[in-house]
Specification:
The chain has a single domain, classed as Gcn5-related N-acetyltransferase (GNAT) (Aminopeptidase, 3-Layer(aba) Sandwich). The protein is built from 6 helices and 7 strands, in the order H-E-H-H-E-E-H-E-H-E-H-E-E. The protein has a 7-stranded mixed β-sheet with strand order 1-2-3-4-5-7-6, sandwiched between helices. Strand 4, helix 5 and strand 5 form a beta-alpha-beta unit. It is globular. The relative contact order is 0.15.
């Protein structure tokens, strides 16, 4: 696998009419979200859910997210992160340290799990998603975990391909009531 250099990750080159152009020297700050940030995290989740629905992608529903759910993650040992660029929030993700619901018998203590991964649509096409993934990977490795894991709806072909392109390996498909998810990991 070709690993990108920090300079390559920082070079943000794709520009579209409806996106913000980022300059190469702009610093992306990724920090733990505070309780005061909960409404911002919620807005990002809901906006992403609305966008997914507008594309007929059955992954998230805005009504399934509320402040109580954000606070639950902030209080259950998960790490919720926000990414800022020039004092504007551009993304969020969270890391959990177990996921028996999705990973079932494969869930283990040597893994970190990336969830609720969102890039503000205003900043799409600027490699922010890849930078967020790399940050999450580093945080998981810094906790001494061997595996970095995530999942996504099996029907979301574009996101599945994105994770493969980011170096994640397909593990298997899990089926729930009315949904199927693909599991991915990397070392």
């Amino acid at each position: 696998m070709n690993k990108r250099t920090l300079a390559e990750i920082r070079s943000l080159i794709i520009v579209r009419d409806d996106t913000m152009k980022l300059e190469e020297d702009q610093e992306l700050i990724i920090r733990l979200a505070s309780f005061e940030d909960a409404t911002i995290v919620l807005e990002l989740w809901q906006e992403s859910a609305r966008w997914l629905q507008s594309k007929n992608i059955n992954q998230w529903k805005p009504e399934n997210f509320n402040l109580e759910k954000v606070f639950k993650f902030m209080n259950n040992g998960s790490n919720v992160y926000l990414a800022e660029l020039n004092r504007e929030i551009v993304g969020t993700y969270l890391i959990t340290w177990n996921d028996p619901f999705i990973w079932e018998e494969l869930d283990n203590g040597s893994s970190g799990y990336i969830h609720k991964f969102v890039v503000n649509r205003k900043f799409k096409g600027n490699s922010i998603g890849l930078r967020l993934l790399r940050s999450a990977e580093e945080q998981i490795r810094n906790k001494g975990k061997e595996y970095i894991r995530l999942d996504c709806m099996a029907e979301n072909q574009r996101l599945n391909q994105y994770y493969c392109d980011a170096g994640f390996n397909y593990i298997r498909r899990v089926n729930g009531e009315g949904w199927s998810a693909n599991l991915y990991q990397k070392k």
